[in-house]
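Ticket #4471: structure export looks truncated?
Reporter: QA, pipeline team
Priority: medium

Steps to reproduce: submit the single chain below to the structure queue and open the exported record.
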Amino acid sequence: MNADHASGPDPAASRLDPTGELREVVGDCVHCGFCLTTCPTYQLWGEEMDSPRGRIHLIGQLLDGAQPTPAAALHLDRCLGCMACVPACPSGVRYDRLIEAARWWATEPATAEPVRGLPPRSARQRALRAAIFATFPYPARLRLLLGPLRAAQRTGADRLLRGTRAERLVPEVAAALQVAPGRPPRRRLRRRLPEFVAARGQRRAVVGMLTGCVQQVFFPQVNSATARVLASEGCDVVIPAGQGCCGALSLHDGRRSEAATFARRLIETFELAGVDAVVVNSAGCGSAMKDYTDLLRTDPAWAARAEAMSAKVADFSEFVAGLGLTATRHPLPIIVAYHDACHLASAQRITSQPRQLLRAIPDLQIAELPDAGICCGSAGIYNLVQPDAARQLGARKASSVASTDADLVVSGNPGCTLQIASALATAGTPKPVAHLAEVLDASLRALPARSLL
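Actual output as written to the record:
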């Protein structure tokens, strides 16, 4: 399972970490084990090399010049990148930096020749990732998939595959059919969002709004609700029509060059918008955009611009709670189970603000989930490239939700919404899953609770 040590230091290995920063991070780990209880894959399998501590050891070996092995690559690939171990670490180890580097070595080994990166993934895995990244960051292409996916769901193809030899042969296809959104919700947006939504009442801020890729295609009603809530709280909302992908999925998979290209385009788009803040309603996107400073720090032409952009980015809940509530809330007599998205709670350390906003709604109750800090199994593209592990984690999350009296699950990330809704349906305990913005919007507009259910 471990990478095999080469005889003596490998000079090429230093090219993996030219500044020594990664080696320093590895050295910060004192192997205390506080990370073990927070790690989803360690909880699943109890395997040391599938824990943050074990993966840090593997990465340290690679930096020391060890020969990479397929087993080492497997353990690193099975990490969700949920970052739950980062806030749990008493030594402040930046595990996120290590796993992002390891994924870069596996995904873009040719960029660091003659450095020996991790062994290349299988042809099947490379083809799957190529298809994902040729589609998901491009909303127009992603929309083309909706018809075939829904047709397959209507014919029951997802259910027919379950437990069959075909599912074992093509688990990625079965996973895609299972987590894809079903019929369009009644509250789906019927028209394209305008490029400008004026503040209601006194203007308190001018904000840009990210529409995202998965969010705008699968959940456009969330963007509509986000714009209405911001306008109700006194924000002029600028929604640039030409905005593209933020690069979050690419960054999460180690495709740093691709992520940097997307980042530069988005930075330029929002620079031209001239806004005070950029509000993001997807936890994964917000986390990536706040990390633009690191992503582009070695690019002299973009480093300062990236830092300025990252400083303006705020999660929807973070921004609204920080702005202060002025609009009138109307009662919503429902019980909601709030799900902490990993890249909101662990990466951005945002946990109190969403709950603060929910508690401000009259008659609404929050049911806290058992094991709330454990990932649901979505994790970017994880539920497509590691479907078995994602399915197990989804089942755990569904069981946690089912143990509450919640009428509705609330999330702040589209991937989590898809994963949890699918897991609940598979477990035979279906419940609606909504974004925080939709719940706030329903309260502000005095809509009945059934509009969310």
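Status: closed, not a bug. The export was complete when the record was re-opened. Leaving a note from the reviewer for reference: Confidence is low (pLDDT under 50) at residues 1-9, 110-115, 185-190.
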